[in-house]
Amino acid sequence: MTREMQSTPLLDHDVIAVRHSELLSQLVGEPRISDAYRSFDGDEGQLLLIDADGYHWVSYERGQENGRRSTKDADELLFWFLVQTAFSIGCAHEFANRIEGPDFRRVVHAKQRELFARLDSKWRVRLEAQISATLAEHPYVDRL
Which of 34, 60, 64, 79 is most exposed by smallest CB count within 10 Å? Predict the structure, then answer.
């Protein structure tokens, strides 16, 4: 059997939602129900599509698709969901605790790291790699 033939079957929406709820609850430190891809109202929001080509996390604005990320890896998909949540929490935390001067992303990234510390190390490693890649292209810009 070739490697392609041995690929893992895709998980359905319900299984993804249960796994995401578990991880989300760990991340925020309280029980949470997954809603990462159920915020689509027919005009705005995000939607998870699953087909033979994989998982597709699609964003809509004013009824038009304005972004799509695709993968066949359920963990990659779940990572995207968790990063978005941690980023949103980090931004809210930074806004509530704004310090003039340092690049706001320093506070956002610190909050993301704090949240991801509640998860298995594989998730933290992925977050650090993503932050490092972002900073390699777009370094912090502190204002004196």
Answer: 64
